[in-house]
Amino acid sequence: MSQALYESKLTSLPLLGRGKVRENYAVGDDRILMVASDRLSAFDVIMGEPIPGKGALLTKMALFWFDKLQGVVPNHLTGEDPLAVLEPLEREQVRDRAMLVKRLKPLPIEAVVRGYLAGSGWAEYQKTQSVCGVALPAGLRNADKLPAPIFTPATKAEMGDHDENITFDQAAKIIGADLATRVRDISIELYQRAADFALTKGIIIADTKFEFGLDADGTLTLMDEVLTPDSSRYWPVESYAPGSNPPSYDKQFVRDWLESVRIDGQPWPKKAPAPALPPEVIARTVQKYEEALQRLTA
């Protein structure tokens, strides 16, 4: 296993903030050094143990997809070497896990696209026959493919809180109808292109989450990470079977373990602190991330 990085500690740049996985450092007024740590969050709780090499794998996969999806919408990459903005002694710490990106004004919604019924979408469908206000056919099963991909936005939660699914109309009230329409149409196009490509590599992308921002000129720009197993549900084609949760390449392995763990005879309440991840769960999770990247880029 590679050396794990739970938290970056750079002193040559001002820290803007730490998220669940990433740390952002200011590079002047117009750029950000985005560092992907090896932290993992599940059920919106950050685990106490890192997943060695995860940040580098996520960065490599995000760069792969940014390149693959060029032409649909501008992205936040500057094209510059992220290590060039650091002092020489700090470069090794973030090598292969940093991106130098444009500083944008983030939109306050998450652009979620679902091609299959899973997760919170499946839970909502069972109650209402719809997801985020999008009516769906009757009789669908867990993990069924939808007739067409649907846009199901969410509000961005503070760290430790859960994102809240909202309707398109609610998203339009937050960011304006014209912008919401563009975000929806671009998100569906990005998802469809990625899903079609992934299928040729034996991977189903069941759903994914995009984030967008506006640059100084108001140009809509794809930002943050894109189409990684942290922001998407990846299923291997060969073990996909509707009617239950298919095995996945994302952090579902950790989620399943957390669902099964008992503390003083009780299920973990999905609040911090998280139970310590056993070495075998960490190793299996690393393996899943590596396998997804190898399969996609082979």
TrEMBL record:
Offer one Pfam family short name for this entry.
SAICAR_synt
Q: Name the pathway it acts in.
A: Purine metabolism; IMP biosynthesis via de novo pathway; 5-amino-1-(5-phospho-D-ribosyl)imidazole-4-carboxamide from 5-amino-1-(5-phospho-D-ribosyl)imidazole-4-carboxylate: step 1/2
Q: Where is the SAICAR synthetase/ADE2 N-terminal domain?
A: 16-264
Which keywords are on file for this protein? ATP-binding, Ligase, Nucleotide-binding, Purine biosynthesis
Catalytic reactions of this protein: 5-amino-1-(5-phospho-D-ribosyl)imidazole-4-carboxylate + L-aspartate + ATP = (2S)-2-[5-amino-1-(5-phospho-beta-D-ribosyl)imidazole-4-carboxamido]succinate + ADP + phosphate + 2 H(+)
PROSITE patterns named among the record's database cross-references: SAICAR_SYNTHETASE_1 (PS01057), SAICAR_SYNTHETASE_2 (PS01058)
Q: Which GO terms describe its molecular function?
A: phosphoribosylaminoimidazolesuccinocarboxamide synthase activity
Q: From which residue to which does any coiled coil extend?
A: none
Record-listed E.C. numbers: 6.3.2.6
Checking HAMAP family in the record gives: SAICAR_synth
Q: Which family does it belong to?
A: Belongs to the SAICAR synthetase family.
UniProt name for this protein: Phosphoribosylaminoimidazole-succinocarboxamide synthase
Which species?
A: Pelomonas cellulosilytica
